[in-house]
């Protein structure tokens, strides 16, 4: 191994983190439920959609990471400077509501995974919430990132689960590279859900903020680029194996599911208890990682937007608003999961709508800022890359509008599909 190669490898390892952590955290409790439902209902039919979604995720994360490295500033900070306080206030208000709801779903995932192992949520949720809060409050960025990497490893349980069910690999590979389309509205809406759960507004804020917090600059951005690409690849890989695992077991046996817990429990009689254990362990790791990252993403974004000190490595007295926001979101989310009679499905549905409202303007701001030569200099989007970014943005906005319409007024969407002949 040459000295030059070792030097480059060490530089990559030092820069590694923001892209991988953000991409893995996108596969949260809601994402796992969506992928599992996609496999259970449509078999391998949505694997090609997952491939396209992974490419779109890589483009979005690359733009955010590059913007953070070049400008040294977070996304909300740049939105405030370029587009004014009103747009910033709107984005932060919607982001706070969406992230709070999504964090509730992550603690719901934590509760579910422990319940599968026979532990009550009234024990697991308070203990895990306290652990998550304490680790961030008492750690610096480097130590916290190592915890995140450890939680990323738990996702490999889905790879093992997908392999032990022994799917027909030739059929799987064919489905992955051949577009599939079913002529019904539910299939299209499930495809939109798969894409929507992969690319989230909070993910764009967090990856850019963590690039800045880690001290990555334009000079060493090439290593963060690989970090983003690797993270996006593994995010797609994990989603791929979740779909494969449920398609090879639940779909072929015509067993419908709605939640990740349904999928984990349904796997046992079909693929053995180890498949259930692996699926549940992956759900726990995914939910914990997102429960760490989502409150941090919110605290970063809001503090950037309004000029407060922020950063995991800072002391509480130096950044009280940052750590205060983080603490409040953890506390409220954990309490909501334990609240008797609360409809977690309703919370997740509302969160999906709010995220859908926020994603289009955030994507537009991202592409506009990344193409601004005054801010980005020679690192601004090239003409061809800008065209690709706007194409993906237009597609995602159109799909988001459809998903929102389906959530709020499903009859309208059915009418639209019939009108265009689907």
């Amino acid at each position: 191994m040459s000295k030059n190669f070792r030097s480059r490898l060490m530089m990559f390892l030092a820069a590694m983190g923001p892209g991988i952590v953000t991409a893995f955290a996108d596969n949260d409790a809601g994402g796992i439920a969506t992928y599992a439902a996609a496999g259970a209902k449509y078999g391998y039919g949505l694997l090609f959609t997952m491939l396209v979604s992974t490419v779109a995720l890589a483009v979005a994360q690359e733009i955010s990471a590059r913007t953070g490295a070049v400008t040294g500033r977070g996304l909300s900070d740049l939105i405030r400077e370029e587009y004014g306080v009103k747009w910033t206030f709107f984005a932060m208000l919607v982001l706070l509501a969406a992230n709070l709801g999504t964090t509730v779903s992550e603690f719901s995932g934590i509760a579910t995974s422990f319940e599968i192992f026979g532990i009550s949520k009234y024990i697991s949720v308070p203990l895990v919430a306290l652990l998550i809060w304490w680790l961030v409050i008492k750690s610096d960025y480097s130590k916290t990132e190592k915890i995140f990497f450890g939680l990323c490893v738990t996702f490999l349980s889905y790879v093992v689960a997908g392999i032990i069910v022994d799917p027909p690999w030739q059929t799987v590979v064919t489905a992955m590279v051949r577009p599939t389309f079913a002529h019904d509205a539910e299939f299209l809406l499930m495809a939109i859900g798969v894409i929507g759960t992969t690319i989230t507004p909070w993910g764009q804020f967090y990856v850019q903020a963590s690039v800045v917090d880690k001290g990555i600059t334009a000079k060493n951005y090439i290593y963060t680029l690989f970090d983003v690409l690797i993270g996006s690849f593994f995010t797609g890989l994990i989603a791929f194996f979740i779909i494969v695992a449920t398609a090879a077991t639940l779909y072929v046996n015509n067993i419908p599911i709605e939640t990740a817990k349904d999928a984990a429990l349904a796997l046992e009689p079909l693929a053995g208890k180890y498949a259930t254990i692996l699926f549940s362990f992956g759900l726990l790791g995914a939910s914990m990682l997102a429960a760490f990252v989502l409150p941090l993403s919110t605290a970063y974004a809001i503090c950037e937007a309004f000029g407060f000190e922020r950063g995991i490595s800072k002391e509480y007295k130096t950044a009280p608003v940052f750590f205060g926001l983080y603490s409040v979101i953890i506390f409220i989310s954990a309490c909501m999961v334990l609240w008797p009679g609360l409809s977690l499905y309703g919370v997740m549905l509302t969160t999906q709508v709010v995220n859908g409202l926020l994603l289009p303007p955030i994507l537009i701001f991202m592409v506009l800022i990344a193409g601004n030569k005054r801010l980005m200099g020679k690192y601004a989007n090239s003409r061809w890359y800008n065209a690709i970014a706007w194409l993906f943005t237009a597609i995602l906005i159109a799909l988001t509008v459809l998903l929102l319409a389906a959530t709020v007024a499903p009859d309208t969407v059915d009418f639209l599909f019939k009108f265009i002949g689907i």
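The mean pLDDT is 82. The chain is about 80% helix and 0% strand.
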